[in-house]
User: What shape does this take?
Amino acid sequence: MAENALTSPSSSHRRPFSWGSPLTYGLALAIAAVSIAPVVYVIVGGFRTTPQIIADPAGLPDPWVWDNYARVLTRSDFWQQAFNSAVIALGTTLAVVLLGVCAAFVLARYSFRGREALYTFFTLGLLFPSGAAILPLYLMLRDLNLINSYYAVILPQVAFSLPLTIVILRPFLAAVPRELEDAAAIDGAGRLGFLWRVMLPLSRPALVTVGVLAFVASWNAFLLPLLVLGDADLHTLPLGVQNFSSQYTSDTAGILAFTSLAMLPALLFFTFAEKQIVGGLQGAVKG
Amino acid sequence: MTSTNPTLSPAGGMSVPPAGPPAARRPSSRAAETRRKWYEIIGLTTPAVVVYVMFVLVPMGFAVYYSLFRWRGVGPPTEFVGFNNYVLAFQDPIFLDALRNNAIIVFGSLLIQGPIALAVALLLNRRFRGRTVVRLLVFVPYVLAEVTVGIMWKLLLTGGGTVDALLKQIGLGNFVQAWLADLDVVIWTMLFVLTWKYVGFAIVLLLAGLSNVPPELTEAAAIDGASWWQTQRHVTLPLLGPTFRIWMFLSMIGSLQAFEVIWVTSVPAVRSLGASATMATYMVDNGFFARLWGYGNAVAVILFAISFIAALLFQRFLLRRDIEGAVTGRRN
Assistant: This one.
């Protein structure tokens, strides 16, 4: 019955989409506005002066001033923090993808005793939230003399991202047809050659997804850097924004500008990688 | 899985070619092959296992150990106090406030974000011009750093700030509160900010779930004369169940860990009175900043135990069918 309906040419016109259109538009606009208005306010507010903001908190810039943004952009510590954030995020991403794909490859393509136990062992990590472990983690990093180094942030971030990475990658790697593997074996490639020359290129979408998730999480991270990066030269952008806002409480316009500039990379990155992020979440749901 | 069909995966491993070369091999090659397979397995998994064990599992073990001492973090812990730190925590009214606040955040998030996200996801699942843009915008708050969100709302909600001015402009001046300073109001303000930040995540997850609902089903329902609402109610929503429960699970675990937004948005003085404290902020305040390391680790263990039990209960009663095997082991 359903198939008949599907093949009938009129079926697509019968969907009741027309009646609600104005309402749909109105609601969709309202939702979009609620999501984005505070963000727009912060960016636009950065073009005002603090006295303007205090006199009329909900007003528009009049005139537009560039001074706040210029002040932030000429601060050397802003650039240092952006650099630190970038190094830590890239290091985390590379390590997560590398370690994750190696482990997921074994879990997906090798049959051996204890394989499922090993997988369960990794998935157990999904129940260990990094927030709860932060104090002992700090103590351990201190004993390892890693406090105030990039590693103090990168290593725990990698460790806590591995479970989700493996959960997303394993089904993807397992889905690559066996015929390809046999063909590679006949062509003389070992299993490692197969991983390097066939698996990695084929699984690029999944690798990009886990990479993007790890990058965004690292770029936004606050609690771990707060505890382990006491040295101001190593501060990341989230720490920088927080310090700036509590140091110059009366410089509202400056805080707005700094906040805008700090969130800009995340917003840009997001618009480019939105598909991967959403795809990753989708993959995690199906996991 | 590759292991389900024995004819496809011989005991020697997965890359034994079906015909040809093996016949020419020397008798010992099979043992050598097995040994090489194990070298590869160990070589490829060891880095991940080491990092994972060292930075995820070991610290939690140490937390249990440290929590049994009164310890200022200098030198090895020596002053054994048994479970005294745990007793102290449950006797501290501030910690009990933190527990209550976590409960408010857990249930508040589920009860507020759930219906909103469902409604918005169903709306955004309809076809209209600009749908892609709206979907993108809805997700923006989730991508922003917690710190950014916290500072933003702190500025907006400050006394005489933008939110107050806007409320006055639209004639709701009577509703103005000391959003961040009133001890009875601040936790609800926190809940509002958290909702704004995370509802987009729920929407995107549900949209992903909706995209898995086969269009044939809704089309068939429509042809059978079901209205848009009846179609959603009887066809779409039941199929969305698994996605919704997974969102509930993630939201619950996240709410129990709530730290960044609250740390940044609420004033330390308000937090230290318990009005906006959560278990995580309480733990960091006491353990790291007040240097009560033994006590802080006890709070960490409590936080972990609560999350763990909540996760297991949730899995036992609600998630069982959805992620069968993901954590409890596969059964095939």
In short: Chain A touches chain B through 114 residues (CB under 8 Å). Confidence is low (pLDDT under 50) at residues 1-19 of chain A. The first helix of chain A runs from residue 2 to 7.
